[in-house]
Specification:
By secondary structure, the chain is mainly alpha-helical. The protein is built from 12 helices and no strands.
Length: 237
């Protein structure tokens, strides 16, 4: 009876595969449909969404480019407002819409310093914009050479970027070591199971084992958190 049932199911499956729709065509229709396009766009946004650190680094890089472009425009003889407008337009910022108040202030002769400070406060990694705002205040109000001051700010920002990259390279080894040490307990469990000691039976079979398991997980998590905290402080210093 079982053999007949298996044969019948196999025959039905073979008939369905032979006469049913093509799998490749179904996948192609799904991918070319509107729902498939929306799913692809959502997945692309999810995969390409920058992290907080990457977004901050993008803002710092854009601040350096803005200072360099502004210094070049000022050296070409343009007025501060026109130079800032052209520089902001030429730089690829992570959020161009956030620079609209700066553009409006530069074109209309408004408070550029306050606009730059407001953008820097809203953007993670906008320290360069704060320095540029201070330079703008000094250069426009006091009449100092704005191009030379902005160029010095760009140099200082480049030096700070090189320092951050050097610190990140030096911290890559400790971060990797910490992750490897965090995975050693799992390796110990696998070795114990391979030797026939049945560690999971002890860890999951009673209160003492559960206490040991909870304590080990807590200590492992605390070690990872503490290492990450120290590395983050070192990178931000």
């Amino acid at each position: 009876m079982t053999g007949i049932l298996v044969a019948a199911l196999s025959t039905a499956l073979a008939v369905w595969l032979w006469t049913g729709p093509d799998v490749a065509a179904l996948r192609l229709n799904r991918l070319t449909s509107r729902e498939g396009a929306f799913q692809r766009q959502s997945l692309r946004r999810l995969l390409t969404r920058p992290s907080r650190a990457r977004r901050a680094e993008a803002w710092r890089r854009a601040s350096i480019e803005l200072c360099q472009a502004l210094s070049a425009e000022l050296s070409a003889g343009r007025t501060p407002g026109e130079a800032l407008t052209r520089a902001v337009t030429a730089v690829d910022f992570p959020d161009p819409e956030a620079l609209r108040p700066v553009l409006a202030a530069a074109r209309d002769g408004g408070d550029v310093r306050s606009a730059l400070v407001s953008v820097a406060a809203a953007a993670q990694g906008g320290e360069g914009l704060v320095r540029l705002a201070a330079c703008w205040d000094v250069g426009v109000s006091v009449g100092a050479g704005l191009a030379a001051v902005v160029e010095r700010v760009a140099g200082a920002l480049r030096t700070a970027k090189a320092h951050r990259q050097d610190v990140a390279a030096q911290l890559a080894g400790p971060r990797t070591t910490a992750r490897m040490l965090a995975g050693l307990p799992v390796l110990g469990l696998l070795m114990g199971a391979a030797l026939g000691m049945h560690p999971l039976d002890f860890l999951l079979g009673g209160v003492p084992g559960l206490l040991c398991l909870a304590t080990g997980i807590a200590l492992d998590a605390c070690g990872l958190w503490w290492t990450h905290r120290m590395a983050t402080r070192a990178a931000e210093s």
